[in-house]
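pinging the channel bc i need a second pair of eyes. not urgent but kinda urgent?? the chain im working w is below, pasted from the shared doc
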Amino acid sequence: MTDVTAALVSAVVTWDDLRWLRRAWRAPIIVKGVLTGNDARRAIDEGAEGLVLSNRGGRQLDGVAATLRALPEIVAAVNGQAEVLMDGGLRRGSDILKAFCMGARAVLVGRAYAYGVGAAGQAGVARALEILRTEVERTMRLLGCPSVVELNSSLVEVPDDRLVSGPDGAAGHAVPQAMRLTDAPVPERTRQYSNSDSEQFDISAANDRDPVRTSPRQQESFGR
């Protein structure tokens, strides 16, 4: 068995490695794991065509910033010079749309299909993606947006302490609109996911890093 800690210590990756990779690889390069505006600018300067905001699920550093909090800073730093994708913290279709509204070009979803495959294998993955798609479509209808190209920052409300300045140093501002981005800790919550047949699925978790406990009804529905 590999000693994970020793492997992480020895596996040092630097900006020099990215420069070497840029010289050796002529196709587009996407750098994953960016969480600050400075790193975003550095990655672009070294030749990256795309960035993926990711905190690796908090596995390496549990106190690291949530990717949605870092997204405005990254988008401002990139200033349209590279594609910005966001990974992590996406539990519902509305979470996906929040990321789009705040400037992400696309999102990466991992836990949703992991929960699905754990509950019912391939059928569970298909069901998890169906739930997310249904939630995305329903939320867009409620926002009055027939297409994702119409999503913009006016549809989200960002708490004052999460505002970031623009690339020219201008002060940020909050626009109180349809979807509120809250970051207050919730020790215990129950989420309800509904599909097109109005069936509800209760999911309880101590926090976003804890495994979701599926109920027998969930497992039965995933297996359909």
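so The CA atoms of residues 121 and 200 lie 20 Å apart. and DSSP finds seven helices and eight strands in the chain. — does that match what u expected or am i reading it wrong
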